[in-house]
Amino acid sequence: MVADLAGVPVGRQRLLTGHPPRPLRASAGADDPPPADVLVSTLLSSGDSLVVETAPPSTAGAPAPAAAAAAPTAAPAAAPAVPADAPLVMDVDAASPPRAPAPASVAAAVAAAAVAPALPPPPRSPSAAALPPASDSLAAFGSMTRRVVPDDNSCLFTAVAYVATGGRVSPPELRLITATAVSAAPDTYTAAVLGRPPLAYVDWIVKADTWGGAIELAVLAAHFQMELASADIQSGRLDVFGEGAGYPTRAYLLYDGIHYDAVALSLDGGGGGRESDVTQFPANDEVAARKVLELAATARAAHQFTDVASFALICRDCNEVLAGEAAAQAHAGSTSHTNFEEITG
């Protein structure tokens, strides 16, 4: 069952349970992993969390040394190898290719000190060290374009995947990266920061129908070691996550109040081709930042945003009607419901 859910072959599984997670044993004092024919009911009780680590074939089921426990490990849903000459962008408007499903719970994905899956290199971007004068910025030679991503509750993760990796990493993988980072830093990501207990948060964020926001942008900025800047259409504000951390590059998103889209510099005039898209810029490129804010201003003039303070939502889990984002967040916190839909017309 674990192999089916997590995609980890039986011979490479290292199973842990408890808090903090410890290797699964046949009995409390045994050092060896349980035999293959042992009854699961003698090892686990209903409601227990089961953590799956990927181990080398020669060490599957064996306790990992302390040093090895912190080393990067292959993830169940790691991105496939990408040829060196593959295009750096994907058509985010087209139908998405099949992707690995998000884990049903953190039990199948997140270990206490697990390291996020190894990712392919991000798209090429101008080097901060080689940044020309502002008047010669690459952003001056193209048009900032809104690359619309699907409205499927994973828009933030899809948009970040596009600007940070050219779409080579799937939203479920970015959800897992986020859950892993939060799980590994309990002193940083406390219940006060997350709005819910950390373990509840990591179970929640890996679900495909949960929305991402500021917390997830901050985590992913640290993961990719780049600034992620979100231009708010309604307010005209630019929120930069990772700012001050010394990251040399920045990527941009456009936020309409409930939905994130990717932003790219199109060197073909925005005519629809993605091959010439540039999604990363020197962090101190003022021309790129100004052009993104101009793009947001154009969307604001066309009223392409949702006023989250007053818009109406219905919770499809219980059919309660809610007014505004704050009410929806409070409802989600008290009920764990996440299936919201905007009421229009």
How would you briefly describe this protein structure?
The chain has 345 residues and is an alpha+beta fold.
Characterization of this structure:
- 24% of the residues lie in helices and 16% in strands.
- Helix 4 (171-184) runs antiparallel to helix 6 and helix 4 (171-184) crosses helix 7.
- It has 345 residues and is an alpha+beta fold.
- Strand 5 and strand 6 (238-241) form a beta hairpin.
- The chain folds into three domains: 1-73, no CATH class; 109-305, Cathepsin B, Chain A; 312-342, no CATH class.
- Strands 4, 5, 6, 7, 8, 9 and 10 form a seven-stranded mixed beta sheet that branches.
- It has nine helices and 13 strands.
- The chain has helices at residues 2-6, 66-69, 155-165, 171-184, 191-194, 198-205, 214-224, 286-301, 325-335, and strands at residues 13-17, 22-23, 50-54, 143-147, 227-232, 238-241, 249-255, 260-266, 277-278, 281-282, 312-315, 321-323, 340-342.
- The protein is globular.
Question: How is the topology of this model organized?
Answer:
Elements: H1 2-6, E1 13-17, E2 22-23, E3 50-54, H2 66-69, E4 143-147, H3 155-165, H4 171-184, H5 191-194, H6 198-205, H7 214-224, E5 227-232, E6 238-241, E7 249-255, E8 260-266, E9 277-278, E10 281-282, H8 286-301, E11 312-315, E12 321-323, H9 325-335, E13 340-342
